Amino acid sequence: MDQKSPSEMTENEARAELERLAKILLQANQDYHGDDAPTISDAEYDAFKKRNAEIEKLFPTLVREDSPSEQIGAPASSGFGKISHAVRMLSLGNAFDDNDVEEFDTRVRKFLGINSGDVIEYTAEPKIDGLSLSLRYESGQLVYAATRGDGEVGENVTENARTIDDIPVMLTNAPDVLEVRGEVYMSHHDFLALNERQKVRGEKAFANPRNAAAGSLRQLDAQITKSRPLKFFAYAWGEISAPLGATQFDSIKALKALGFSTNPLTMVCSSPEELISHYRKIEQSRATLGYDIDGVVYKVNDLGLQKRLGFRSTTPRWAIAHKFPAELAWTRLERIEIQIGRTGALSPVARLDPVTVGGVVVSNATLHNEDYIQGRGSKGEVIRDGKDIREGDWVQVYRAGDVIPKIADVDMSKRPSNSVPYEFPSKCNICGSPAVREEGDAVRRCTGGIICSAQAIEKLKHFVSRSAFDIEGLGAKQVEQFYNDGWIKTPADIFTLRERFGQGLQQLKNRDGWGEKSATNLFDAIDAKREIPLGKLIFSLGIRHVGDSSGALLANHFQSWENFERALVNTTIGSGEAWDDLLSIDGVGAVMASSLVNAFQNEKEREAIDALITHLAPIDAVRKNTEGSPVAGKTVVFTGTLEKMSRAEAKARAEELGAKVSGSVSKKTDILVAGPGAGSKATKAAELNVMVIDEAAWLDMIEGL
Q: What is the CATH number of the domain that holds 672?
């Protein structure tokens, strides 16, 4: 299948791609984890996340705070009590082919500094397609059961979990504190029987066993859960007062000895080749297992190595899920529509005759940009053998790789005789302003700015999105309605809604779909967001090139809104100490910095920002407590060859201790850790009188911390 590779993208194209991925995958998380009603398949979702991760790896400065890579599950439902996990319940990174498995092994070895000649053992086990659950036992007694939720806070489903036969309520010879992690699922046989009962009762059937299991466990009435045939596989643990074993495999055996069901297909492998071989075996037996799986999970077996490898923000470095492949289908492309984003980007979307692809009904596909439609890649190279895409074409749809599926191929033999090439618009279809394409930009953009209602609405939707202000009761639908009615035109207008429409003849409570209680709740929710963390505020402004993670980086650097605003107002693009300071922030490049400065020095944008700030009390960023750390607040650069730990491990450790790790030496550098082979960085450090130490001195400095 021909598709645009992330390596072929321009920075602007990558940014647009990440923005779109973040928006739709956020909704997918809520659909899947929060509502038990996924709108896309697991294979599609995971492939979307892979696409996102590939782009983020190539464009690290574009990583957004609301990136799917930074999210786990969905917030706990208000219908249940909430439980904070003592140890976060993380998601897993994904592998989709044999090369990904090899790369996983390579990353593990590189981080640990283990060469290819030494054996690293891994466990391989089926990845159950169910609902993640954490069971906490104290002195052998089941204390509570909680869903994963957003990884930090889950739903209290203790009474429901007690009805599942596979979950013991008492353990013998267990550690004093033991959190058992696993998956609640439903067998194929039980699923079919349940749906038959639903049909007899005239009730809605479940779409698949995963939805049935999740919906059954998350019932407010435990008696309903008890009537459902749920099962549980244990495969991990959270907080624990004493280890179950020295390895992952021994610990799983210990869980089985305690009375938990564990998967009999779990085995230890000594190489990527053995992992892949076991994957093939499980894949071949998939249809006969009697329950749904969507891949195989690999974990470093040695728990000591797991501890050294540690975690990224949402995934462990020592585990990965090798997913089963996605699918293809053919259908007719009825028409091409243009959507306008908040940055003015014209995004073409294919409207398709609905087709079921791997259990999911697909009716839309992304067309990226005008070059993609014409059969060209971002660098002008030929894609799809040069076949263009036209309305009326018979197209092959590929489900894994984007927010909405891609067009993999065009069947030229079925192209209508009256077919004509698609002419990409040169004007915005919303406001009529010229749509221009700047040099080096793969995307054509509307020049209407604030007069373009599509851009204004999208900016407001961005402002109230979950990673920004996240105002309860004010989502994309309400924002669009209020905008069209003239109630909200700018973010500042949101914070005067109560004043303008809380009383008088035209009151919110009198509108269709609203009442006194819902209106009051909205006004209160808005007021509750007047205090907002600095990082979220920066992200919410919708400044081009500034994503969620960038907002956090900027907040941590400047600490307060006053510092942030003052710096940007007084910065000259391309020169000066303020400009250098902005570029010194890890993850901030010249493009993002210029965008920030332009936003704060543009009269109209600044007017809107100033109007908003009058209604807010931004919360200063707070750095991690690194009391006693000799490197807290210092900028550290590593160069040369490190012999005691890998560069990645050294960087992670330094950041844990409150240091900022930079890739280049400047006058702001405090410490250069130089191993054998240090070159120009050591020379520059000497010129700037920067402290230079070797790896041994560095380890002595942080020893015991």
A: 3.40.50.10190
Question: Residue 394 corresponds to which tokens in the numbers above?
Answer: 């018979």
Pick 402 or 188 by higher pLDDT. Answer: 188
CB of 55 closer than 8 Å to CB of 18:
yes
CA dist 253 → 20, 121, 125, 257, 259 (Å): 43, 16, 13, 6, 10
Find all residues with CB under 8 Å of 503, minimum gap 6, and list them: none
168 and 306 assigned to the same domain: yes
Tell me the C-alpha distance between 218 and 195, whole Å.
17
How far from 496 is each of 500, 538, 612, CA to CA, in Å? 6, 20, 10
Number of domains the chain is built from? 5
Residues carrying an active site annotation: 127
* Residue 180 to residue 234: CA distance in whole angstroms: 7
Whether the CB-CB separation of 416 and 61 falls below 8 Å is answered with no
Q: Coil, strand, or helix at residue 292? A: coil
Is the pTM value of this prediction over 0.70? Answer: no
Beta bridge partners of 303: none
Report the distance separating Cα 387 and Cα 663, nearest Å: 43
The whole-angstrom separation of Cα 623 and Cα 2 is 46
Point out the domain boundary residue: 289, 323, 357.
Answer: 323
**66 and 88 co-located in one domain:** no
Summarised one tens digit per residue, pLDDT across range 553-592 is: 898 889 899 999 999 999 999 998 889 888 888 678 888 8
Q: Is residue 174 domain-shared with residue 304, that is, in the same domain?
A: yes
Residues 169 and 268 placed together within one structural domain of the fold? yes
Query: Where are the alpha helices (H) located in 413-502, listed in sequence order?
Result: 453-463, 476-484, 491-494, 497-501
> Taking the CB of residue 696, how many other CB atoms lie within 10 A of it?
12
What's the rounded mean pLDDT across residues 610-630? 85
Exposed e or buried b per residue across 503-530, where buried means at least 16 C-beta atoms within 10 angstroms of its C-beta: eeeeebbebeebeeeebeebbeebeebe
Give Cα separations from 628 to 632, 697, 701, 705 (angstroms). Answer: 8, 17, 11, 8
Let me know whether 564 and 668 are in one domain.
Answer: no
Contact 245, 253 (CB under 8 A): yes
- Of the candidates 480, 455, 219, 492, the one whose C-alpha atom is nearest the C-alpha of residue 347 is 455
CATH code (residue 217): 3.30.470.30
Domain that holds residue 678: 635-702
Same domain, 522 and 579: no
Q: What is the mean pLDDT of the chain?
A: 87
Which CATH number is 348's domain given? 2.40.50.140
* Cβ proximity of 68 and 314 under 8 Å: no
- Which residue matches tokens 């996983």? 104
Percent of the chain as helix, strand, coil, to the nearest 5? 40, 20, 40
Per-residue pLDDT of 446-500, as tens digits, reads: 887 767 888 889 889 999 998 899 999 998 889 999 998 899 999 999 999 999 8
Which residues touch 292 (CB under 8 Å, ≥6 apart)? 128, 129, 130, 185, 188, 208, 209, 210
